[in-house]
From TrEMBL:
<keyword id="KW-0472">Membrane</keyword>
<feature type="transmembrane region" description="Helical">
    <location>
        <begin position="20"/>
        <end position="41"/>
    </location>
</feature>
<dbReference type="InterPro" id="IPR009988">
    <property type="entry name" value="DUF1510"/>
</dbReference>
<feature type="domain" description="DUF1510">
    <location>
        <begin position="118"/>
        <end position="209"/>
    </location>
</feature>
<feature type="compositionally biased region" description="Acidic residues">
    <location>
        <begin position="63"/>
        <end position="104"/>
    </location>
</feature>
<feature type="region of interest" description="Disordered">
    <location>
        <begin position="47"/>
        <end position="143"/>
    </location>
</feature>
<feature type="compositionally biased region" description="Polar residues">
    <location>
        <begin position="125"/>
        <end position="139"/>
    </location>
</feature>
<dbReference type="Pfam" id="PF07423">
    <property type="entry name" value="DUF1510"/>
</dbReference>
<keyword id="KW-0812">Transmembrane</keyword>
<keyword id="KW-1133">Transmembrane helix</keyword>
<protein>
    <recommendedName>
        <fullName>DUF1510 domain-containing protein</fullName>
    </recommendedName>
</protein>
């Protein structure tokens, strides 16, 4: 009886061990299957994300190309803006030539006169005098000071750098003055001016002298 019961117990243990081993094997297999599924699913998600990013980049590249295409069309507009600029540049020399043509320089025909210079664009220098004009040659008079302004205007010599050698009458409403720059007194000019009522003294001719005669 004891031997038979022992044999039965051994048989039961073997069966129990087999069942346990089988159950463990099944659990391990399930774990492997679940882990593989999770891992594979994660890879699929990453692949899908990569594919979506690639598609987005491709679509963005296409949209950029489409947006870049019309940007080439306005390239013709700068040509239109450049043409007026060229015209403006070409106009500037024309204006300078016109100004140069206004001044007429000729060889002097009088003794000690190197050049005669006439500019029709000369204007009166203005005046603060009113009433009937009197041609004055007093150095402290307003008329004398306005004569000096006309001499400086005609020669381009600043008043502060101009030496007035002589101013004499040339009729009741005209005068002649001899001047030179202080920095070079050998350079002398004889200037003809005339009075314009209400406007002041106006240069009519400048004579560049060969030698400074100081108004003699």
């Amino acid at each position: 009886m004891d031997q038979s019961s022992r044999a039965e117990r051994k048989t039961k243990r073997r069966k129990t061990n087999r069942i346990l081993n089988t159950a463990i094997a099944v659990v391990v297999l399930l774990i492997i299957i679940v882990g593989f599924t999770i891992f594979a699913g994660g890879n699929n998600d990453e692949e899908q994300a990569v594919q979506e990013e690639t598609q987005q980049e491709q679509s963005a590249g296409v949209s950029d190309e489409e947006s870049d295409e019309p940007a080439e069309e306005p390239a013709e507009e700068p040509e239109q803006t450049e043409e007026p600029a060229a015209d403006e540049e070409s106009d500037e020399p024309a204006e300078e030539e016109t100004k140069d043509e206004e001044t007429v320089v000729s060889e002097g025909t009088e003794p000690n006169v190197e050049q005669d210079i006439v500019n029709p664009g000369w204007e009166s220098v203005g005046t603060s005098q009113s009433g009937e004009h009197t041609n004055s040659f007093e150095m402290d008079s307003t008329d004398w000071q306005e004569k000096e302004q006309a001499l400086a205007y005609a020669t381009g010599i600043p008043l502060s750098d101009m030496t007035v050698w002589y101013i004499s009458g040339n009729g009741p409403q005209a005068a002649i003055g001899t001047v030179s720059p202080k920095s070079n007194q050998n350079e002398a000019y004889r200037v003809h001016i005339e009075w314009v009522d209400g406007e002041g003294w106006k240069p009519t001719k400048v004579q560049k002298l060969k030698e400074n005669d100081k108004g003699r």
